[in-house]
Give the backbone structure.
Amino acid sequence: MAEHQEQCRHILHLSKKEAKQFLDSFDTVLFDCDGVLWTVFEPIEGANVALELTREHGKCVKFITNNSVRPFASYRQQLLGLGYNAEEADIIHPARSIVHYLRARKFDGLIYCLGTENFKATLRQAGFELIDGPTQPLPESFHQIIATVHDDAPVRAVVVDIDFNVNYPKLMRAEMYLKRSEDCLLIAGASDKTIHVRHGCDIIGPGWFVEMLEQAVGRRAILLGKPGYQLRAGVVQEYGLKQPSRTLLVGDMLEQDMAFGSLCGFQKLLVLSGGTTKEQMGRTNNTLQQPDYYADSVADLVQLFAENK
């Protein structure tokens, strides 16, 4: 643990020469959003200045998140509040990545979806046909529950993301479609097992439900949220990252952000303003999840830029 902490340097503990080398080593910055730029309730102090200075120093700024709960208009409004005028192409999130993946496969068929209304709306607006539910409580009777979830709908893909109203019948229905045909795709968006809301408040994430279905049907999901390997090619190609090592990924989660950065060959900066503590960072023995640098928050980037004009 001590060895890793020594290797992973705080960006404000770098020497003047090291800081300049670090800032000159990347051209693109991929910012995670929740826990990095804001919490569920408020912006993180210094995020607006960090974005401004990153652009002023000639860096290309993009955003990548596992949160498809909010529509693009909400992201745009939130980023406008930080002084950044974002285009839809600037933000990668699971619903958008799933649309791109299905279009690339020329997918044509019925989708059973566990997700929020905004998530499902993104897929429907892209021209895909979805079914969902049941959302209402069912009688506590095997006969009536099975009669509800065991249908003949010609489902060719099951898509799982954050679903605040997930229930046992929905999971049973997803399992039955997947077991009916090995050609039925299992696609996952957000894989987070923990969702950080604010200090002292973490909630269960959709990753547990994805894992439950994977174990029930005996195959892995196609993961199109971080840290999905299938997401890697789309991000590198879409943003033209011909030298991935000259991209800096700024995130707050070890399993999602740091592991994804490792798979992509990015440099990785962990901020401690979200879902990971310094102690958790020090305890990780998974080399994919280990950051290259860390900071207390993006406000440290502001200080770093100011000290290295």
